[in-house]
Amino acid sequence: MRRVAIAAIACAACLTAVPARAHEIGTTRVRAMFDSKNEYSIEIVTDAASLIEKIDVASGRTAGASGDDAGLARRLRASDAMFRRRVGVDFGLRAEPPAIEYDVIRGTATAPAVAKITLRGRVPAGASRFRWSYGWTFASYALTVECESCRPVTEWLEGGEPGGVLPSIAPAPPTRMRIARQYLALGFTHILPHGLDHMLFVLGIFLLTRVPRHVLAQVSAFTIAHSITLALSMYGILSAPARVVEPMIAASIAYVAIENVLLRQVKPWRIALVFAFGLLHGLGFAGALKELGLPRSEFVTALLTFNLGVEGGQLTVIAAAWLATSRCMSQSWYRARVVIPASLAIAGISLYWTAARI
């Protein structure tokens, strides 16, 4: 047991290099604006430190310390050539490369510094299309296109995926089915692959018991609870600051993991505890969803399908864990070699997140 504990703690120490912000969804927004003089400006808002880290990796450099806001801005300007490699502005005709301005908005105790990057240029005469691509994020992000004579159009893109419209054409608003597909995918990717903290909580629920109905009871309690607070938060009935919610979410993961080490079976209070933690995680889901925004015309559709996507992600995590461990669950060494080391690793990571988020 001592060797198992040491190995698990070492594993947790290595994994604490994972950022305390465990999901990237909602951290990038792009707004393209066109005026009557055929000039455009494209504004990118994203996490400054995360962007610089990705640029360093792509350049083959060792990621250094983020530094202050002025230092972040200088590093972005110095990386202009590399930044342009994964940014695409295409009008279907030869056009001059855009001028790019880099700025960093000061971070706070509860929010990281934000990079505001503005591309400016002129639309070539006779342009037949506007296509945009941005490869510096791995998550879904919103592209909003605006012009003086048309209503704004927003579409969701994956990192590197091309998208865009002609500003002279006002396309029809997205259908209910398209919104449902978009928010279903956003909810799923909020768990897989971007919601590492929520994944670890679900794995903590799974590890305690080998009885399927006990796993189902815990997952059902968690689902009902976070659905309640997600809905209440999105309707403006309930709110809590992220600086309180995020550390508490991390602490809840650590508690469940530690309890897995101390308990050998699901106790009655475990269901109530998971329900209470589900209420907390629902506030976390709401914080991410508020960053994404919900279409006013299909608010209920987007909210319901986002929640369904979250559930699909959770069930996928449980199914993968079940497939990975089903053959050894009946072995006498399963608890000592799987449950305890994995729970200690989860506890170590989440305790680190708790401290980092505080």
Report the sheet with the most strands, covering strand number, pairing sense and barrel closure. 6 strands, mixed
Estimate the mean pLDDT confidence.
82
Oligomer: single chain
How far from one another are the termini? Answer: 32 Å
Main sheet: strand order: 4-5-2-1-7-8
Low-confidence stretches: 1-25
Compute the number of helices: 11
Strand content: 15-25%
**Number of individual domains:** 2
The H-and-E topology, N to C, reads as HEEHHHEEEEEEHHHHHHH
Question: How many runs of DSSP E, i.e. beta strands?
Answer: 8
Helix/strand class? alpha+beta
Estimate the helix proportion, in percent: 40-55%
Shape estimate: elongated
Radius of gyration: 23 Å
Produce a short descriptive summary.
The chain has 358 residues and is of the alpha+beta class.
Structural commentary:
- This protein is of the alpha+beta class and 358 residues long.
- The protein folds into 2 domains: 184 residues; 146 residues, no CATH class.
- 53% of the residues lie in helices and 16% in strands.
- It is built from 11 helices and 8 strands.
- Helix 6 packs parallel to helix 8 and helix 6 packs antiparallel against helix 11.
- The longest helix is centred in the last third of the chain and has 27 residues.
- The chain is elongated, with a radius of gyration of 23 Å.
- The N terminus is likely disordered.
